Amino acid sequence: MSVTSSSSSLSTFAALWRLKPFIRPAFGRLVGGALSALAAAVIALMVPIVLEQIVRGLGEAAGARADVGAVALVVGGALGVLALALGEAVMVWLRRWFVLTPATEIEFGMRAELYSRLQSLPVAFHDRWQSGQLLSRMMQDISLIRRWISFGLILLIVNILTIGIGTVLLFRWHWLLGAIFLLTGIPLWISGYVFEKRYGTLARRSQDQAGDLATSVEESVHGIRVLKAFGRGKHALRSFSRQAETLRETELSKARAVGMIWFWLDFMPQIAFGASLITGILLIFAGGIDVAELFAFFAMATVLRWPIESIGFLFSFMLDARTATDRLFDIYREVNTISDPEKPVHLSEPRGELAFEGAHFRYQDAGSAERDLLDGIDLVLRPGETMALVGLTGSGKTTLTTLPARLYDVTGGCVTLDGVDIRDLELSELRRHIAMAFEDATLFSASVRENVLLGRADLDLHSPEADRVLREALDVAQAGFADTLPEGLETVIGEEGLSLSGGQRQRLALARAVAAAPRVLVLDDPLSALDVDTEALVEKALRRVLAETTALIVAHRPSTVALADRVALLEKGRITAVGTHSELLRTSAHYRHVISSLEADEAARTGTIPDGSDTAEKEVRA
C-alpha cells in the first residue's frame, strides 16, 4: 500500500522541525560540528585576502627592485596560506568528529522509537500497511535522515552562510563587481523555488515506489515455494520488472530535475565570472581598482564556487530528507486505539471466567450497508471450562478469538474477564492472563527455547524452572522432535519456522501457548496440521492441561469438539445455541449440518469414510 502524506501542506522547514525531539539530545555536538565547518569556511575565505597582500607586496617590491624582499614575501605568503590550509583541514576533521557519534545515536533512537511504535500499534494498522513500506521507512528513510543531519544540514547552513559572507566581502573590492555577482544569483533562487515544488513530489513518489518494490521482494521470498510449485517465477519476475521500471522512470525524472538545477548552478557563475572579468579590466583602466584587488576578487569568487554549486545537491538532499520525515510521521501520527486505560483495574487472583456481552465487531473496511461480522455475541465461559466454537466458514469464528486478548477491540458491547471489562486492564496483565495459539503458526528466527518461552518474561530462560516449564509444554504439544534437531532446544529456527514442517510449527506454537500458563487459553484450530495419531496424543495431554484452564477452542474437526465440556454454535454473527455435543445434535438442525460438514472435511483429509457422508443426522434419526 502506498500512503500519501498529509504533511505535504507543511513547509519544508516545518516538516523537518518535527525531528527536533530526536535531535535535541545531540544538539550541542551538532552545533559544535556546524561551528567547526563554519570556521573552516571562514579560513578558506581568508586566503584571497592574504593573496591580495602578497600580490600587492610583490608589485611594490618589483617596483623597488628589491628581489630579496620579494622572495621573503612569497615565502612568507606561502607559509601563511599553508597555515590557513592546515587550519581548515583541522576544522573539517573536528566537524566529522563532532557529528559522527551523535548522528548514529539519533539514527538508533529513531529506529528504536519506530520499532516500539510498530509494536504498540493495533493489528488493524498492520492490516492496512504493507510490510515492505514499513521496512523501507525503518531502514532507508531513517538512514537518509541520519546522513542529512550529520552532513547535509550542516553543510547547507554553512555553505549558505559562506555565500553570504563571501558576497559581502566581494563588495570590499568594488561595489559594481559585488553587484554583478549578486544579481546573477537571482535566477538561481527562481530555479530553486521551481525545483522544490517538482522535486518534492518526485521524491515522495520514488520512496513510496521503493517501499512497494520491497514488498514485492518480500512476498516473493516468503512465497517462493508457491511460485515454484505453480511455475509462476516468470510471472512474478514480470510483475517485479514493471514495478522496477516505474521506479526507474521516477528516478530518471528526479535526475532530470537535479540536472536542471545543476545547469543553472553551473551556468550563472560562469556568466558572473565573465561579466566580472570584463568589468574588472575596465575598472583597472579607469583607476577604480588595482590588479591585486581584481586578483583577490576572482580568488574569492573561486572559493565561493563550490558552496554555490553544492547548493543544488544539498537542496535535493534536504527535500529527500523532508520526504523521508513525512513518511516516518505517517506512522507516528497513527492513533493507537488499543492502549492501557488511564485508571487500570488489577486482577490479583483471576478465576478465568470469560464472557462476551452483546459483543459487536466489524472490520474498518466493511461497507456501511453490511451487517456487523459479529452481531451481538452473548457467551459465558465458566472458570476451568473448555468451550468449543463451531460454525460454517465465514461465520466469524477466528475473528471472535482475537477479541479476548484485544488484538482487535469490540465495536459494540464488551468482553469481560472475571466480570471486569478487558479494556479496563493493562494490556500486559491481560495478555498474561490470556494466551493464544493460531492455526497459522508463526515462529521467529530464534532458538526453540526462546520461541516456546516467548510468553514467560518472568523466567530466566536457562533456569531450572524455565527448563521444567519448557519440557512440560513440549510434552503436552508432542513436540519431542525438538530434541532431535541439530542443536536440540538451542537450534535456531529459520525465518518464520519454514525450515520445519507445518505440523512441527503448529506443535511449537501450541507449546508456546501452554508454556504461558494463562488462566484463559484461546486456540484457533491448533491441531489442523497434525496427523491422526499425533493429534490423539496431543488431545490426551491437553485434557490434563485444560482441567484447570478456561479454554475457547475453534473446532474444525469433530475430534476437537470432543475435547470440550460445552459447544457454542456461531451462526451469522451470533451465538444461536450452547450446550453439550449430544444436546446440540438433538436440538439444532444447523449444528448437525455444521458437524456433518466437519466430518466430511475430515473424511476427505484422512480418507477414512466416504466424502459427503451425513453421520450426524443418521445418529440423530437412530
Automatic annotation (TrEMBL):
Record region (Disordered): 603-622
InterPro entries in UniProt: AAA+_ATPase, ABC1_TM_dom, ABC1_TM_sf, ABC_transporter-like_ATP-bd, ABC_transporter-like_CS, P-loop_NTPase, Type_1_exporter
Keyword flag Nucleotide-binding: yes
Ranges that cross the membrane: 26-51, 71-94, 148-169, 175-195, 261-289, 295-319
Coiled-coil residue spans: none
GO molecular function, one term: ATP binding
Record key words, sorted: ATP-binding, Membrane, Nucleotide-binding, Transmembrane, Transmembrane helix
Entry membrane topology: Multi-pass membrane protein
ABC transmembrane type-1 domain boundaries: 31-320
Protein name in the entry: ABC transporter ATP-binding protein
Gene source species: Microbacterium soli
Phylogenetic lineage: Bacteria, Bacillati, Actinomycetota, Actinomycetes, Micrococcales
